[in-house]
């Protein structure tokens, strides 16, 4: 496959409701899409970087900059997705930007060869059970209404965003109101090890897991915390690579891993993390970053791997957007279908994409 260039496209996607976490409130997703063009086919990748460096050090303007100035020029002699990682390995970090361009190349390559991503990754399911991530709210009543609505829609697992001051009481209220649903929490690094005794107060609520309670660099802290609470510790932000996953597992810093392909540099590394976890009997699940249909399609393929034994943050399109840029993913009894068409299996709708586009830039090779 001969790559001829990349298009960087920025789109502005208003969320159906503000999404509040311990690191900030998102009301509109400013998304960078990458379109790879080759002589045989085109492919799409979605960069999961957010507007500011609040979830991780990456942010969308930086991703566009590093792609334009360093990554795309370095891909001149690359002819397949497996070549992208090695061609970019001398550049440190910027995994979300690397993931976007590698996924675009992978999608183009798989389309050219008529192969679906799910099969390429080793998926074993044709539909995946879905969870939903519920933001911090102004009141417990508002939270119970939101959770009740999602359960009515069929979601199979609820994740509550927590932070100091919004943790024990919302969990207690949801547990009391909805009984023995699958329930977990995500702190996005809002605590320190000094909060261990406080976090142990979540123990009685039989949570599936607590996601990333401590700083992303505090892997040892998570290992210490895991000895002081009975809720299983799951890492998100800390797991930046298969090597990081192997180290965290060996240190007993996590019992479960959230895999986000964007965070770890792409679907090929995501697959390696999955394999490391399976080899160590560590359950994994596919996380999310409020993706459009482009990123969602590929995440659903990953969620269909055999080691993804917990429901992912792979919610339906209408949980995020009134109008998606692709045909929407809709929930069927709590499941999303795994795309079966070549590549990521979905394409943007021309009019919908045009309506939300704020800028495009063509980078020839
Ligand atoms: O920590 O999992 C997270 C969204 C943006 C950034 C970080 C996270 C999240 C979510 C939402 O929890 C997951 C989703 O539904 O896409
Ligand atoms: Mg998380």
How do the strands and helices of this protein lay out in sequence?
Layout lengths: L2 E19 L2 E15 L3 E6 L12 H12 L12 H5 L6 H18 L4 H5 L5 E3 L1 E4 L5 H14 L3 E5 L6 H11 L4 E4 L9 H4 L10 E2 L7 H8 L6 E3 L6 H9 L5 E4 L1 H4 L2 H13 L4 E3 L6 H11 L31 E3 L12 H7 E8 L1
Parallel strand pairs: 5-6, 6-7, 7-8, 8-9, 9-10, 10-11
Antiparallel strand pairs: 1-2, 1-13, 2-3, 4-12
Helix pairs in contact: 1-3, 5-6, 9-11
Strand order, largest beta sheet: 5-6-7-8-9-10-11
Estimate what percentage of residues fall within beta strands.
Answer: 15-25%
Q: What is the gyration radius calculated from CA atoms?
A: 20 Å
Work out the count of structural domains.
2
Q: Write down how many β-strands occur, each being a DSSP E stretch of 2 or more residues.
A: 13
In sequence order, what are the helices and strands, one letter per element? EEEHHHHEEHEHEHEHEHEHHEHEHE
CATH architecture of the largest domain: Alpha-Beta Barrel
Class derived from helix and strand content? alpha/beta
**CATH-defined topology of the largest domain:** TIM Barrel
